């Protein structure tokens, strides 16, 4: 994952200091691009341990069209918890519950989860129901029927509903490209990228999506191209990334998907595994909400 370390180094050296919505402060660079060749291994960062379980559950959650964190919480994936909790704190039902108490209620009380666990019309909703259009199902059908089309695009950025979302989509649009020799590539446009916490997750997430779509469409996954608008390092993540820059990347792992003749809409967490993932120790950092 030299590409990721090159991105980190470039932003630290050439980025500008900027204030931001969270009042944390960032070093930011606008318009970056990295390319990952999946034929060389699955691009999961090795200079720190990355939560692969969360990556798998989140992408399956997106594909299902779900927007409530209960599925994630029930599977001990807590990457989305802070946003509905901040909304809950402004509601009349809020009784000074801690974040952990809020999550316990999401897990154990279905009515509470239904009322307070939904993120609004975020990714899954837009993928599967963008103003009545099932973009993801159409995408799969179009790749199979007209692979060389230049219209294999899904947008999560819906101006009509963006103000109803707990967090407007950071990874906002992606496009597939099928080559004459049966390879398939995926380019993601990410309007905003948290380089330390979010981007390693996003690289692996969309690489997994590329692998899943390739299997469904009987193609071979090749390049994941990651284009970021505002690529930023939060001021409270600088030391963590400087530590990563001192670490030597390890060999990339191998992704295994056992489809059991299932469609992409039927794949479960248990069908996806990672082999040979070795990483340096975990590095923690606070989420800016």
UniProtKB/TrEMBL annotation:
Name the CDD domains for this protein. TS_Pyrimidine_HMase
Which keywords appear in this protein's UniProt record, sorted alphabetically?
A: Cytoplasm, Methyltransferase, Nucleotide biosynthesis, Transferase
Q: Where does (6R)-5,10-methylene-5,6,7,8-tetrahydrofolate bind?
A: 194, 288
- One Pfam family from the record: Thymidylat_synt
- What does the entry list as the binding residues for dUMP? 21, 150-151, 191-194, 202, 232-234
Question: Which InterPro entries would you find in this protein's record?
Answer: Thymidate_synth/dCMP_Mease, Thymidate_synth/dCMP_Mease_dom, Thymidate_synth/dCMP_Mease_sf, Thymidylate_synthase, Thymidylate_synthase_AS
Catalyzed reactions: dUMP + (6R)-5,10-methylene-5,6,7,8-tetrahydrofolate = 7,8-dihydrofolate + dTMP
Q: How does it assemble?
A: Homodimer.
Stated family = Belongs to the thymidylate synthase family. Bacterial-type ThyA subfamily.
Concerning HAMAP family, the annotation shows: Thymidy_synth_bact
Task: Indicate what this protein is called per its UniProt record.
Answer: Thymidylate synthase
Q: Which gene encodes it?
A: thyA
